[in-house]
Amino acid sequence: MSEQLLDVQDLRVMLPTRKGLLTAVDGVSMSIAAGEVLGVVGESGAGKSLTGAAITGLLEPPLYIANGKIELEGKRIDNLSYSKMRRIRGKQIGAIFQDPLTSLNPLYSVGRQLVETITTHLPVSDAVAKRQAIDLLKEVGLPAAEARIGHFPHQFSGGMRQRVVIALALCANPRLIIADEPTTALDVSIQAQIIRLLKRLCREHKTAVMLITHDMGVIAETADRVAVMYAGRIVEVGPVKDVIKNPHHPYTVGLMNSIPSIAREVEWLTQIDGAMPRLNDIPDGCAFHPRCPHAFERCRRERPNLIPMRNSQAACWLCKKEGADEQRQ
Amino acid sequence: MSSDNKPLVRARNLTRHFDVSPPFLNRVLEGKQRQFVKAVENIDFDIARGETFALVGESGCGKTTVARMLVGLERPTSGSMEFDGTDIALLKTRREMRQYRRRMQMIFQDPYASLNPRWRVMSIVAEPIRSFGTVKGNDAVRARVFKLLRQVGLGEDDAYNYPHEFSGGQRQRIAIARALATRPEFVVCDEPTSALDVSVQAQILNLMKRLQKELGLSYLLITHDLAVVHHIASRVGVMYLGHLCESADTRTIFSAPRHPYTKLLLETLPDLSMQGRQRVPMAGEVPSPMNPPSGCVFHPRCPYAMEICKKKLPERQNVGHELVACHAYQAEK
Amino acid sequence: MDIFRYIAKRYTLIIDSDIFYSFRRSPVTVVAAVITVTYILGTIFAPWIAPHNSYDLTSLSLLDAFLPPAWIEGGTTNFLLGTDDQGRGILSTIIWGSRLSLGVGFAAVIFSGILGTALGLISGSAGGRVDAFIMRVAEVQLTFPAILIALLVDGVSRGLMNVYEAEAMAIYVVIFSIGVSFWPQYARTVRASTVVEMEKSYVEAAQVAGRHPAVIMVRHVLPNVMGPVLVITTINLALAIILEATLSFLGVGIPPTEPSLGTMIRIGNDYLFSGEWWITVFPGAALAVLVLAVNLLGDWMRDAFNPKLR
Q1: Is the reported ipTM for this assembly greater than 0.90?
Q2: Would you list which residues of chain C are within 8 Å, Cβ to Cβ, of chain B?
Q3: CA-CA 20 to 30 A from C48: which of A78, A277, B333, C277?
């Protein structure tokens, strides 16, 4: 197996509040190989965006990393100073956010923003950088790139803006891109275009992607592997085909069945009752047990770790032989 | 359709234009023209009692404007909308409108904005009851609110809490309870689940379906999610830039779509069965409704576009009780 | 049963709220609040707290005039902070004067608050020409300094009344003129919040429920725009107190027979250079402390009610 590009071990993100410390991300471990697309999926409040922010060093205070380590190409990056992290962001890690408007400076033309980013990270002259910028814009499918390079962000439509943001993220040839809900703000017909683009570019540039989204459809189309998060923890991780077609964790099973599909006719959708717990009352043991149809004594008491299955891993006592036995009794 | 089985809602040539002209002084001094956005243009549809009619389309297609016109939040520029045989577009005063308002209610998209944060659930759900006076006396109103809350899967104690103490799904349940408070026959649901997580979406869709069965409701469902439409709707209208491209039974839309836009929309549905099918993404983006393309508004993105599409707006064609507006489909026939 | 539940709920909501938390966490604000509350209590209970009734002309004796504070030679413990030219005890007059200053301040901000909030609500909900008209008037008025408006209103009303009426009505004229000069700020803020709230779907839900537009404005929108109004009211209270003091100092405010803090400062001003500094310094300090405390409270409120700054 190839060397891992990104390795996250036991990451814990805490949120201090006046009522005490809350754990927003709880012991997340994941790794991404070079050129791989890892999907991170979960409902709102699952901690998926915070995981991404912790990796890019963009956690907003008072959130902080309390534990664990993040290694990029074998070097720790979670304890770097802000200025060092800034160099890594852009050069080695690119970021794409949900709303393209927030990632672009409205006062500068897109050309200037691209050129600045390129010259900051690569030793090239402005003229060369501008040529590269035009090439990049062409690559992301912006029509008439030469003419539009002088345009300002508000002169682009939503889909075109997101293409510019992708160009911006790619321009220093980073090894890893963290894409946080890159298609959520876009219309359905544009989403498919952007997903295809992202996938093609990453294959061509051999860039790894951590794709954070709540949309299983996007994951199914794009990711190689997928990590399903619930209440700040990874509950299941594995190759995307295995997780989607043969999920092990009851949460993943429920999630997959609750998505209406045009492939099957059902009178009622499978529903998971209740809602994701708030940060201040995450239950003991397995965080999912109050909503789980198969919960038994051990789930309430003891928190399961990821247990290897045939191809994937799931954090569920049902997946452990003795756990299953206990339930049967 | 037999004539004695009249639809509950019938819209004919429903049109809504918005005046987005620059202010008077700018028009005079800078010579700017008056401008109108044609949000909804000549739309026809029927909704039968007890059925769910879905309007689908991307943002800016005018589907929400249709919903808002039906419940009287917006006045149509022209056209008619009949509710149970009366043209409510002709009703001028609030008082005339009121007796129909009780019979049609609305569920809004964002449950975080549709509940007044300073009101308790009791007052929120009781508001339509008090407004229309359907139940008299405080005790009776309270009893009715408790019953509604139980009906949507909440507890009686929840009546004393404020909206911020509930999750998104629970809030949408409260909104549904409010919409049902005056025993309406027709409920307009404007993207009822798009602000919710998928596992919660399933809860709400199931609830809506159950309530429809129990209370014999008719729904107008506004959504951009074709999978939701497939699950819940009996008939579908597809809108693009203010025009109705196609309306048909749900089965027809998904098995034999007629309009090219419908076909392309179906292509955008993600493939969760993981068959490795490559979908063909739709080219281009939705043009600005301020400045729509000439002829058929979809022609710049349409793979079947012909010369005539650029010049002439396609006429609506009836295929049985379904309709489609496309030159290519006409030519093919 | 219902009502108890309601009160218990309200109580826990207040104690539990972020606002209360941020209040407790800011010592400056707590001190400012304590000072403000002390002033308010002091003015409410003035008849019992003040050693003398400065407004009762029969109790004054010119023999007591110009007494220095108690700790200076010639002072008496009867008049702790000395007396003025009429023989009024400074301490008592400060207490009675604060009562007047705070009273006028509160009345003025409540008056302008009601006027401005109502106009802002109408402006924000009606839109179109009504909105344009109200806002243009507000903007025109904002181009004049508040003191100028107050002086103008004051002058006009004095011109319309004879001397005795003017004397009797002076306090109401001051309240009115300060109130009128403050309404545009309320109107603009309330209008802005109203426009935002009107966009939210709970307003539309009330429309679908068949509510009358006026009911929607008062019962739905108004409670949701009150946050900023409360903040402006606090900040304006300090401004109104200063404005009243300024008017009185200029001699167009409260008549000298019932001195407010501003009137006292003016009276003392005449004797400042002849050595009787206490007549003006103590009322001045009292005014400064009061205004500072109210201002600090207003500052904290502005931050606490603005989620972006939290």
Answers
A1: no
A2: 5-6, 9, 13, 200-202, 204-212, 220, 223-224
A3: C277
